[in-house]
Each structure stands twice: as C-alpha cells, then as structure tokens.
Design brief:
The protein is α+β, with helices and mostly antiparallel strands. Helix content is 27%, strand content 26%.
Length: 180
C-alpha cells in the first residue's frame, strides 16, 4: 500500500499568494505600495536591514461564505488532493489539520477552514511548470464566487481580479516562465 500524499510548506510561505474578496482591493493596493517603499528604504545593496510584517486585510475571505465542498470539487477537477499538510521550519514539523490542499509538483492550492466554510485560500508561491498554467487558470476560474475574488501575489507585487482574464494569463506566464 502506498503512503498517503503529504505536502510540506515552510511557515514563511503561508498566504504569500492570497485570494481575497474584491472589497480588499484598496487595502492590497496600499499595502503593496508600502511593502515596495519599505523594501527600497531598507535595502543596503547586499540584503535588507529590517522587515515589515504585512497587515491582514480588513475584508476577509470568510465573509463570502465559500462552501468547502464546492472548493474541493473545483480543485479536485484539476489537481489531486493531499491527504496530509504539514508546516514548520528547519527540521521542525507540525501537522495542519485545518488545511486541505490540492496540487502537483510545486503548485498547490491551500484551503483553510473548519466545517463547511472556507476561511482562507492561498497558493504555494514556488515557480510552477509552464504545462500547469492551463489547469491553474481553470481551477481559479472555477472557484465558487470567482467573480468576487482578487488575487494578490505579495512577493511579486501583482494584484488583479480573478475575472480579469488578460491579467490572469500575464501573471501565469510570469509565474511559469523559465528562470534565467
């Protein structure tokens, strides 16, 4: 019998690419600008001299009351599920019983919540394979209430409505482009 699929993510990677309600747009736009300015002010040529903790959006995904079963169906239509999700750092590991995840390779969608409702949705922020782009796009478009969602990629500074197909395609092309 094979081992159940298990996924580990470093604790610093939590929610680096978030799905939020469109109402969070002003907060995300302002915070991206503040992060950029802070990074510029604290880069000494070799590294950063300080860090900024990103504030949580005042509008939470939980407010949209996304049903867990519909998110599971959308995700499972494109990617296999993981049976276990773990987080930690260095050699320390701890299970994440509230998290569900689907994906392959370096791509994963994480759903956080207890019971019937989703409290947070986020993506692993690794570099994904180009051949995954169509399945990632299909998954994001098929999420319940996708027309009411935005995607914010905090590390790469992207913000767009999931309903903005050209923006989604540009972002996926960048995220799946070969690194030089």
């Amino acid at each position: 019998m094979s081992e159940p699929r298990s996924l580990y993510f470093h604790e610093d990677d939590d929610s680096q690419i978030e799905l939020l309600p469109l109402a969070a747009w002003p907060h995300c736009q302002r915070t991206l600008a503040e992060l950029h300015d802070f990074a510029q002010a604290h880069f000494d040529g070799a590294g950063y001299t300080d860090l900024m903790v990103r504030p949580q959006a005042p509008q939470l995904l939980a407010e949209l009351e996304l049903p867990m079963d519909r998110v599971e169906a959308a995700a499972a239509a494109q990617f296999p599920a993981y049976a276990q999700v773990w987080t930690g750092y260095s050699s320390w590991r701890t299970p994440c019983p509230r998290l569900r995840a689907w994906g392959e390779g370096d791509f994963a969608l994480f759903a956080d919540g207890e019971g019937e409702r989703i409290e947070a949705l986020w993506l692993a922020h690794e570099h994904w394979a180009p051949q995954q782009a169509p399945a990632i796009a299909a998954l994001l478009r098929s999420l319940p209430k996708s027309g009411e969602l935005l995607l914010v990629d905090w590390p790469w500074g992207h913000l767009f409505a999931l309903s903005d197909e050209p923006a989604l395609q540009r972002w996926l092309a960048e995220r799946t482009a070969p690194w030089e």
